[in-house]
Structures are given as C-alpha cells and as structure tokens.
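Please, is this right?
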Amino acid sequence: MEFLNWLNPNDVVGLEAGSQSFRIAKSILNKGIQVIVLNPGDLATIYQSLKNR
C-alpha cells in the first residue's frame, strides 16, 4: 500500500468500517500509526455534534 509511505508516526488515521478496513488498519498499525475504525452508522451523528459547536 503506497499511501503508507506518506504517513508519519504522529499521524492518526480514521477509517470507515467496511469489508477491508480491518486489514488496512492492521497494515497501518504495524507502522506504529494510530488507527480509529469508525462505525458508518455513527458518522453523521459525530459530524453533526462537531458542526454545532
């Protein structure tokens, strides 16, 4: 995965949960980068709560 070369140890990556998300997350974690896998059903709620601040 070419994008792994662009990531730095201080980066945090958010992925929408899907069929390949956990495989991708594992590759990113192996580089020592923090990964958060997000439930797509909750993304609209999270976005709205941040937008209303």
